[in-house]
Specification:
By secondary structure, this protein is mostly beta strands. It has one domain (4-19, 35-203): Sandwich (Immunoglobulin-like). The chain has one helix spanning 71-74, and strands at residues 4-6, 14-18, 35-39, 48-51, 54-55, 82-95, 103-108, 139-144, 159-160, 162-163, 173-183, 199-203. Strands 4, 5, 6, 8, 10 and 11 form a six-stranded antiparallel β-sheet that branches. A four-stranded antiparallel β-sheet has the order 1-12-7-9, with no helix packed on it. A two-stranded antiparallel ribbon has the order 2-3.
Length: 204
């Protein structure tokens, strides 16, 4: 079975103040006068990931502009349909891996928060419309393959990396994918749209 290793997750390190009356907490510590809870992540990824030639790390996500759509052109689409005739291509490259690590594919995650609120089999999450008003409604983003752009790829589907390096070590490979709007509600509202798509590397 292939092992997935996440190399593109949002890294959050937060300090949460604990009340000075910590004696009431259920942490088993009864003699403290205060404290903090430390939250963080430890990553095991050994590869360099770029999107359209730009670093694609925990807090650095290159932007891809999706084709605009007109409500009048897609009003008769069914929920789950891809919208518009075009999609935006972008290239994901995996390189600089350790000698004993050989990737074979990438697989997109269901959403930043693991939420598929509309129940449509496409790539979407609740991180939409951040910092923009008004916010587009009734749509979300789907990942498609340029070779088969009529349907969104499914969650966890392995998208094979095309190997471009000469040897088995120092692996370099890439895959080209596309982003397109998908209808998630009966009514679409105009506005700005922002979403985040994350993916895992699948190793041999």
């Amino acid at each position: 079975m292939s092992a997935k290793r996440n190399v593109l997750k949002a890294s959050v390190i937060a300090l949460t103040l604990v009340s000075a009356f910590a004696n009431a907490a259920d942490d088993g510590i009864v003699s403290d006068d205060g404290g903090v809870t430390l939250l963080g992540h430890v990553y095991t990824g050994t590869c360099v990931v770029t999107t359209n030639g730009q670093d694609s790390k925990d807090t650095v996500r290159p932007e891809v502009t999706m084709p605009s759509i007109l409500i009048a052109d897609v009003k008769d689409a069914a929920i789950g349909d891809l919208l518009g005739d075009n999609f935006s291509k972008f290239n994901v490259e995996v390189s600089g891996c350790a000698d004993d690590v050989v990737p074979k594919a990438i697989a997109f995650n269901q959403g930043v928060f693991g939420v598929d609120s509309a129940g449509v089999d496409s790539y979407k999450n609740d991180f939409i419309g951040q910092g923009s008003t008004p916010v587009a409604t009734g749509v979300n983003a789907a990942i498609v393959l340029p070779s088969a752009p009529t349907a969104a790829v499914t969650f966890g589907q392995e998208l094979p990396l095309v190997k471009t390096s000469a040897g088995d070590t120092d692996f370099t490979g890439n895959v080209e994918v596309g982003a397109q709007f998908v209808k998630t509600a009966a009514t679409i509202g105009s506005g700005a749209f922002t979403s985040v798509a994350t993916f895992d590397i699948v190793y041999n």
